[in-house]
Design a protein that fits this description.
This protein is 36% helix and 17% strand. The protein is α+β, with helices and mostly antiparallel strands. It has a 4-stranded mixed β-sheet, with helices on both faces. The protein starts with a strand and ends with a strand.
């Protein structure tokens, strides 16, 4: 399995619960030998960006800085027009076949392990 899929918004968790799920997803993806994790976090019902999305991006930025993940790509940048997305596809070619590749889906984030 190249890409591990996790739905952080399923069952409408709190931000704290979603953070725990995020950490568990990254651990599970590593244990399964995946190259990437696709997080479904939603964009928020207000259309202004959800709290889970903001918290996930903050947590991922901290993990990238600490060297725990290689990179992450917000869904709106998950297309060949962005260098970080092209690098993600190079690291995990299966991502090029993902249905959200080129869709500008702000409700997902791709994490390279």
């Amino acid at each position: 399995m190249d890409v591990y899929l996790v739905n952080l918004e399923e069952k409408m968790p709190s931000v704290a619960q979603a953070r725990i799920m995020l950490d568990q997803a990254l651990r599970a993806g590593r244990q399964k030998g995946c190259k990437a994790v696709k997080l479904i976090h939603g964009y928020g019902s207000s259309g202004k960006g959800g709290a889970i999305r903001r918290d996930a991006h903050a947590a991922l930025a901290a993990q990238k800085k600490a060297g725990k993940i290689k990179a992450y790509v917000p869904g709106e940048e998950f297309s060949p027009f962005y260098s970080n997305a092209r690098a993600a596809v190079e690291g995990c070619p299966a991502l090029s076949r993902d249905r959200d590749y080129t869709a500008a889906n702000q409700g997902i984030t791709i994490v390279l392990l």
